[in-house]
Amino acid sequence: MAVKVVRRCELTLWEKLYVPLILGGLKITSAHFFRNLFLHSAHRLGLLKHLRASVTFQYPEESRPLAARFRSRHRLTVREDGTPRCVGCMLCETVCPAKCITIVAGEHPDPNVEKYPVRFDIDLGVCVYCGYCVEVCPEDAIRMDTGILDVSAYSRDEMKLDIHELMNPALRKPVGDCSLTFPHQCRLADGQMKGGW
Amino acid sequence: MPILTIDGRQIDAPQGSTVIQAAERLGVFIPRYCYHPGLSIAGNCRICLVEVEKNPKLQIACNAPVTDGMVVHTKSANAEDGRRAVLEFLLANHPLDCPVCDQSGECDLQNFYMNFGLYDPRFREQKVKKKKAVAIGPHVMLDQERCILCSRCVRFTDEISKTGEFGIFNRGDRAELALYPGQRLDNPYSGNVVDICPVGALTDRDFRFKARVWYLSSAPTVCNRCAQGCNVDVHYVLDRPHLNEGARVLRLKPRYNADVNQWWMCDEGRYGFRWIDEGRLTKVRNRGVDSTWEQAVAAIAAELARLQQHKTGSRLAVIASSQLTNEELFLIREIFQGVLGAHVTASVPTPPGYEEDDFLIKADKTPNTLGATLLGLSGPGAPDATAIIDEALQGRIEALWVFGHDLATLIGEEKLQELSRTLRLLVFSGTNETSTASRSHWVLPTAAYVERDGTFVNCHGRIQRIGLAFPPVPDSREDWSLLLEIARQLDHPLAWRTPQEIFQGLAETVAPFAGLSYQTIGSQGALLGSTSIGFPPQEADRCDSQRGERERAVTGGGANGDPWGPRIKQ
Ligand code: SF4
Ligand code: SF4
Ligand code: SF4
Ligand code: SF4
Ligand code: FES
Fold it and tell me: Confidence class of residue A56 from pLDDT cuts 50, 70 and 90?
């Protein structure tokens, strides 16, 4: 049996003295402390605003810049007439490892489009943000580029996005009026949150 | 017989057969679009090109008769180049609608491109536009752009349904498949053109967009809509309840059986499956109030035992059904006739208005009439359901058990109401909500035929296994297990625990079934021996007489393998 000898790392005399290293650490901490104390005070007085104080982002007032490839909340892209680009091919539903996409397809009035999603729900409480749905889509109909990170809700049900919210990321539940046009009229006036359109 | 060599292997092929058939028997797959073993040879798609030695040009395998000493290469560079070129031509004008095309996943353009194509497309011109999504009949949707003009559908309507609706019109790249002017594709076998169309040009309006084909699980069974007993596969989805409002069965497809339906089935059978998921009974009920199986079985068995003790067994009657399997009918016979001495019949008049044709469709709309006859529950000697009901109305019968039939269609609502009032006990066991169910004292929800195992005997004396596709809807149970439970409660426990064991008991008791088992029946069924009832094979089988005219290649599942064995995807 091969034996691997791991040599214990011996401390030098300087390190063994203990106090100098402790003081070194305190120096770094205090430098940040006094710099932030000074800059925050200055910012209060309206001075030196171009110098950032602490590295902390003051979320939610301030959000971190996102990388271009960052995967955030989904959206369904739309055609020029406001109808979804999605043709209900169910490839995203098929590929989704979390099985959180549910699509019901229907007959589109235009035979050249042929198929459209009557229902398209994503359960964000289950989604693992893998982005496979975006990769697989042959129509560039689903993207994860809304930059929305704060998906939170008081119930599991509210974590489910329906097609209205997906096509219009600005909409949040409860959906009131819906600006979608034919053939996707939104009939949500009766207080119903999920409706056929 | 000519001996030829295909890909280095020798085969002794029957005189007059073709290279594609010989290759198939060797297990060598040659791609094909226009060739279909059930139709005449057209030889127009050219995808089946093979190289034949000493022949300057590639040959189409589907129309090359075998000759002695022939040497065929299906995988040579030449043959593969030819096939690739043909595929490129076929796809030149193809719209590539795969995302919205229902065929996708079972499309031979997709499959053959992946297996034999994989070229870089060179067609940069504008594709020809044709008509899309045209409903050409009650069941079929046509997309002319996707059609590759293989003419299978044309030959089907010419040769099999003999209705001749389809034609190919115009020339060159404007050639298109269409109906003759003024026609609709509305014949009793129209759904078959969807099966044989190798691409998504003809799709099923009923199945359209309900699911993707790769979501479907499949299980072999037998159609229960008429006495022909066509072999079918039931395609179902259990794990995506949002599709099709939770219905499990999404479509039926014919399954090849040389002796019953070949590749075909009728539209009535194909689309008559909604009842499996709609309007199902899911609760045991006692006079309209929800109850439990324990209470129901105990109460019914107690009542039956009481009738038996009072030596008034003849005051008990059972209207069984030819929708029940042989196993279940056998149990009914053993328990109700044997133990309780009841009047038992499975002979219920079919409502008039059904017509028979000279192909598959039979006027008898139940799948197991012959089985019931062989068990003595139907046909000569068996009482008739209407006679039993008359007896009951006159008060000579106290308890009646109805299996699945809606008596309202037989005697009308009023008489049914009267019957329910007169009887001490009216039990209905069945799958769906009917007037009889709502008027019965006890309602017992039972499994549909795809939810239980068993056998049917078709009108030509062929016994076929229906298999179990998926479990029954919640709180319903198989008729055979219900009957075994009743027997237990009556203190006549039977030794069998599964349909297979019941069938063994049946084969030992009832002569025509002697020597048979689920193994010998297999997936293709078995012809019962000649019997006292008698159905000489030369009688009846009109579809058999037609069958000889057609070339057939055996493609069905092996009879020895168990197609109903455990499946991975449930
Ligand atoms: S990101 Fe992944 S888990 Fe989420 S919906 Fe898309 S495929 Fe499913
Ligand atoms: S993959 Fe794209 S087009 Fe297909 S269903 Fe999903 S979002 Fe729609
Ligand atoms: S016929 Fe086949 S290749 Fe053509 S669009 Fe349909 S699935 Fe795609
Ligand atoms: S519709 Fe289908 S079966 Fe008919 S010719 Fe076209 S591709 Fe062939
Ligand atoms: S299959 Fe041989 S030419 Fe079409």
Answer: confident
